[in-house]
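Supplementary notes for students who missed Thursday's class. We covered one full example, reproduced here. Read the sequence, then the structure, then the short commentary at the end.
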Amino acid sequence: MRYRKIQFPEIIELRESMILEGDALHALRVLPSNSVQCVVTSPPYWGLRDYGIEGQIGLEPTLPQFINQLVSVFREVRRVLRDDGTLWLNIGDGYTSGNRGYRATDKKNPARAMNIRPDTPEGLKSKDLQGIPWRLAFALQDDGWYLRSDIVWHKPNAMPESVKDRPTRAHEYLFMLTKSEKYYYDHESVKEVGMNGKSRNRRSVWDINTQPFPEAHFATFPPKLVEPCVVASSNPGDYVLDPFLGSGTVGVVCIHHDRNYIGIELNPEYIIIASNRLNAAEDRIFRVAI
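Structure (token representation):
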């Protein structure tokens, strides 16, 4: 696959959908200010897995370093977001490692095993739930974002866990953040049906099954989680950004709803998966050189 290289800090003109290969922070810096209407993304979770890619987010030695890295990325996201734009951010939680440098396998979920894990964060104890989603949400709020809603993504088909001293986790958070006090949000487009059979404003608990993608190594963003975000916060022809594109689900939803997508991804394997899935032309894939 051939790419066109962009030499940082060249600013590129947005003409149609595109994929940028590179570090999220530097790739964002080649995008024009106030150019994107909506952002939907799920960054790597802290201490979950090692992708073996230099510059990857998620294996910072400490939790504050991880949070600070994401705050820096989303500060640049705020620059490229239009004043009436919206950021939808999915982030998962985790438990402390007890200073073990590995995570054991689980007979019900063998994929959870990993041979590298950060130490227990300062101030937390062994077996503590880390509270990463809210730590990040509050850090972004402190950095200037408006924290408008916390959506509970309930997973009816959640992965089982071999635990007997706590409930099995079956949810993640999806935060709605905005750049300004007033912003675009089409509540009519995402209304739901209530128990009485009548249309009502969408609630903050979304029951959506996880949905594997065969070519990806791990669980991917389900389209049904992305669709309400894209539809409510943008119009046909608008640009929707995912600075952690992964296998390209946000792009798939954008194509289906006549939006332009901009995807940023560091992992070359996922660039290939996403570009094939999105049928992206080679001249719309750019490698960002620092």
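Commentary. The first strand starts at residue 4 and ends at 7. The chain has one domain: 4-289. If anything here is unclear, bring it to office hours.
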